[in-house]
């Protein structure tokens, strides 16, 4: 018996954004590798109308192929119109109109059994529309900002909640995320916790001194992996650096706050100890994790960050804020600290972690249960139950 799955995801990498949604791509590859599963991936691309489409943010996206083979997956990339600062019903309707002809054609050729939406907005409401047209069930996965931001924003809250209510099943990246979904009014019995995975062969301990030497680093190094946006809290790390003499801070990621963070580092007199790495290719991240003594991510909100698990898998302890699945992940003090979101608390925790010589085997142990095989098993079971099939 074949399970035909349509994965709908606005979080999916492409040639212009190779790190964008790599965890969704990896989950799709795991699902597609399973015997008895036939997977189609539709990754809609939102582009503003002309002349805004010429903006550096959108212009590269216009050149993407509308269908391609991407790491053993056939990926369709239909365009839909987005209006900056105008979301809500407009984005949902625009994406539905753009995707529907393709979905109808593919469904006529070989009917889908279930739709797997990888994010709650706009994927969830659009999946709801498509599933209603096709008469099939759908599932939506909650990852973090889709519930904490889009689920609370007045313009999108109603659509997010409706998508959750009408779904045949829901996924949450952590127990904490499930509680947030229930607080939003979604049914607890419908929600299954579905942890992320990590490639434990690629993300593994390496010789730390050699890793630092390859990156021309010496002394103690703190790494932060995440988009340079206010929610991730890199500004708190830059401020904490004032009280951590001799420590180097590496920021891996890109985003709109980079210029502000560079200015802050200059003003605080720590600019020579802050390295902006930009968007590090995912396959190069293990070397960066291994060059760091601590990975710190003082986010305002998270589901269960992939960067947490990847760092631990490399034997690098973490300092993270008390958000999302932090307490589900960190039970051994040797693996890291849960800290308050203040520069003072960060400086104290980082000073303690940098002073110790962690047992890297013990640190890595915290990540060993997060495998893509386990992730794939759970996803196949979840979608099979929803579709009324057993692969």
Shape: globular
Please give the order of strands in the largest beta sheet: 4-5-2-1-7-8-9-10
How much β-strand is present in the residues? 15-25%
Compute the number of structural domains.
Answer: 2
Mean pLDDT: 93
Number of strands: 16
What summary fits the major beta sheet?
A: 8 strands, mixed
CATH topology of the largest domain: Rossmann fold
Task: State the CATH superfamily name of the largest domain.
Answer: Glycogen Phosphorylase B
**In terms of per-residue confidence, which ranges show pLDDT below 50 for 5 or more consecutive residues?**
none
N- and C-termini, Cα separation: 6 Å
Tell me roughly what share of residues is in helical segments.
25-40%
Roughly how many Å is the radius of gyration? 21 Å
Name the CATH class of the largest domain.
Alpha Beta
Which structural class do the helices and strands define?
Answer: alpha/beta
CATH architecture of the largest domain: 3-Layer(aba) Sandwich
Number of helices: 15
3D architecture notes:
The chain has 391 residues and is an alpha/beta fold. It folds into 2 domains: 3-197 and 371-387, Glycogen Phosphorylase B (Rossmann fold, 3-Layer(aba) Sandwich); 208-365, 3-Layer(aba) Sandwich (Rossmann fold), CATH 3.40.50.2000. 38% of the residues lie in helices and 18% in strands. The protein contains 15 helices and 16 strands. It has an 8-stranded mixed β-sheet. α1 (22-32) crosses α15 (372-387). The longest helix is centred in the first third of the chain and has 21 residues, at 89-109. It is globular. The mean pLDDT is 93.
């Amino acid at each position: 018996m074949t399970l035909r799955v349509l994965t709908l995801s606005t979080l999916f990498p492409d040639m212009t954004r190779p790190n964008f949604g790599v965890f969704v791509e990896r989950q799709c590859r795991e699902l597609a590798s399973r015997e008895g599963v036939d997977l189609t991936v539709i990754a809609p691309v939102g582009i503003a109308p002309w002349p805004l489409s010429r903006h550096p943010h959108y212009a590269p996206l216009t050149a993407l192929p509308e269908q391609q083979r991407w790491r053993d997956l056939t990926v369709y990339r239909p365009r839909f119109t987005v209006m900056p600062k105008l979301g809500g019903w407009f984005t949902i309707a625009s994406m539905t109109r753009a995707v529907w002809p393709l979905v109808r054609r593919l469904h006529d050729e070989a009917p889908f059994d279930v739709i797997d939406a990888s994010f709650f907005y706009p994927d969830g409401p659009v999946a709801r529309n498509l599933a209603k047209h096709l008469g099939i069930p759908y599932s939506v996965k909650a990852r973090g900002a889709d519930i904490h931001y889009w689920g609370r924003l007045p313009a999108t809250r109603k659509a997010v909640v409706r998508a959750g209510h009408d779904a045949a099943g829901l996924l949450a990246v952590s127990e904490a995320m499930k509680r947030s979904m229930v607080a939003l009014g979604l049914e607890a019995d419908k929600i299954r916790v579905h942890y992320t995975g990590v490639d434990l062969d690629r993300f593994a301990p390496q010789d730390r001194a050699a890793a630092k030497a390859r990156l021309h680093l010496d002394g103690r190094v703190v790494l932060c992996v995440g988009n340079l946006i206010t929610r991730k809290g890199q500004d708190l790390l830059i401020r904490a650096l004032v009280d951590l003499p001799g420590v180097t801070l590496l920021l891996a990621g890109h985003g709109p706050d980079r210029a502000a963070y560079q200015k802050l580092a200059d003003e605080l007199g720590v600019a020579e100890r802050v390295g902006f790495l930009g968007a590090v290719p995912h396959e190069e991240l293990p070397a960066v994790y291994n060059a760091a003594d601590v990975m710190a991510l003082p986010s305002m909100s998270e589901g269960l960050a992939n960067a947490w698990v990847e760092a631990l898998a490399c034997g690098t302890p973490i300092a993270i804020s008390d958000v999302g699945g932090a307490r589900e992940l960190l039970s051994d003090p040797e693996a890291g600290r849960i800290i308050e979101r203040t520069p003072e608390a960060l400086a104290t925790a980082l000073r303690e972690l940098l002073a110790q010589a962690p047992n890297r085997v013990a640190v890595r142990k915290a990540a060993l249960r997060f495998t893509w095989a386990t992730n794939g098993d759970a996803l196949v079971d979840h979608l099979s139950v929803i579709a009324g099939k057993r692969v």
